[in-house]
Amino acid sequence: MMALASARAVRVRSTRACRRSTNASRGGAVARSAAPPSTGLVLDVFDHALVRDGARKMREINPEAFANEPDWVLEWFLRDRKLDADKASEKCTKYVAWRSNDGYDRVELERSREVDEEAATGKAVLLDETDAMDRPVIYVTLTKHEVETRELARTCKLCVRLVDEALERERAKGAGSSETMMCVFDLRGFTMKNADIDFVKFFIKCIFDYFPKRISQVLLIEPPWVFTPVWQIIKPLMGKYAALVKQVKASEAKAYFKEGSSVF
């Protein structure tokens, strides 16, 4: 193993509010958030010299796969795998193959007319505003998404494009940025015709395999009672990420944004 065991890390942790919500949600319902709101996922911090050295070792392990990948991609997977270059290489290799083989190349997504058309529905947008932690926010309006009329491939590609744009915005901030994002799902008016389990499975695979630890918090805005059986299906699939999900009223969601925000 090529793990850099000497790294001194600050463990990923959730706040007490996040732990309380996890306990409250064990019965299957999504937990109500309490004020003050949780800040969500907090990332490990590693010595940058160790991260750079680990990324160099990753390139030695698989030079062909990582030839065109920027350092920040390798470094992120390395941090996700606690500086274990072997495990990070394995996970990052799958990410590179997914990008190139499954139609998720960054440049192609940026230029895709089909994705432009999907974005024009307004079902999912990257907000101009950031949240209270200065993280970018992807806002999804479920009533604009109907399973019978959507094309799953387009919806998935829009999802990845928005995540890419959010991360690019974070990188532009330079050192000290959060490097993560918040996702808000507006469930006001939700009915079963808006319940897209296939897309949810894709989204969950993304946050585990391709964008690990990039989603630091998820808000569900006023889910109606018909959403309960949907959540009972989704929650086990989310595993540890289920603890980052908060059900809030629209009035409560204001606490997750900066004072004077126009989002809610």
UniProtKB/TrEMBL annotation:
Residues 114-264 form the CRAL-TRIO domain. SMART domains: SEC14. InterPro entries: CRAL-TRIO_dom (IPR001251), CRAL-TRIO_dom_sf (IPR036865), CRAL/TRIO_N_dom_sf (IPR036273). It comes from the Eukaryota. SUPFAM superfamilies: CRAL/TRIO domain, CRAL/TRIO N-terminal domain. It holds the Pfam family CRAL_TRIO. This is SEC14 cytosolic factor-like protein. It comes from Ostreococcus tauri (Marine green alga).
